[in-house]
Design goal:
single chain; about 160 residues; alpha+beta; 8-stranded mixed β-sheet; 4 helices; 8 strands; binds coenzyme A
């Protein structure tokens, strides 16, 4: 899968499948986004479900990614979503989420879940605007003790 997209904010990107050499940029964006993942885990998730790992590129450079996993119940879960801080607010996050929804629909997955830091209001707003609703709060979910808001969407 590879699609050229102009985001709702008029920014030109390509959304395509992750490939192993992209891991370096994915980890850079991860670190700049203060997420907790490690490269080994990302590569493992990619091997488990390659179509669930999508990247956004601008002029040949990886500027964002989304990683989907399957839950034991057969639902989808957004494991991770991040955009290079220099490219935020241009519609890249929203476009990656839409591409992830297409992947889930192709697999006929009915529900998608995610957890987001309680203080991450930007991401929560994005998820709400994409049809997610808040279904719970998990105290001490993250390593640093912060709680998570659990969100859910019908595909
Ligand atoms: C959350 C994140 C992926 C959004 O990516 P993005 O490319 O900036 O998102 P978009 O440009 O598609 O913006 C989508 C919405 O996010 C919100 N948003 C984006 N940037 C914002 C900002 N600087 N301030 C407030 N809201 C903002 C807006 O609601 C926007 O919707 P609108 O365009 O209708 O106003 C990005 O901020 C990021 O990588 N954050 C760090 C990692 C993270 O928090 N990931 C989610 C963890 S679960």
């Amino acid at each position: 899968m590879e699609i050229a997209v102009i985001t709702a904010k008029g920014f030109k990107i390509k959304v395509t499948g992750f490939e192993t050499p992209d891991i370096r940029r994915v980890m850079e964006i991860e670190e700049e986004s203060f997420l907790d993942g490690d490269a080994g885990l990302y590569l493992e998730l990619y091997e488990e479900w390659p179509e669930g790992f999508l990247i956004a590129e601008n002029e040949g450079k990886v500027i964002g990614f989304v990683v989907l996993v399957l839950t034991l119940d057969g639902d989808g879960r957004i494991f991770s979503l991040a955009v290079d801080p220099k490219y935020r607010g241009k519609g890249v996050g929203k476009t990656l989420l839409k591409a992830a929804f297409n992947t889930l629909r192709k697999r006929k997955i009915a529900y998608v879940w995610l957890e987001v830091r309680a203080n991450n209001l930007v991401a929560q707003r994005l998820y709400r605007s994409m049809g997610f609703i808040e279904v719970g709060f998990i105290p001490y979910y993250y390593k640093d003790g912060e709680g998570a808001i659990r969100m859910w969407k019908v595909m």
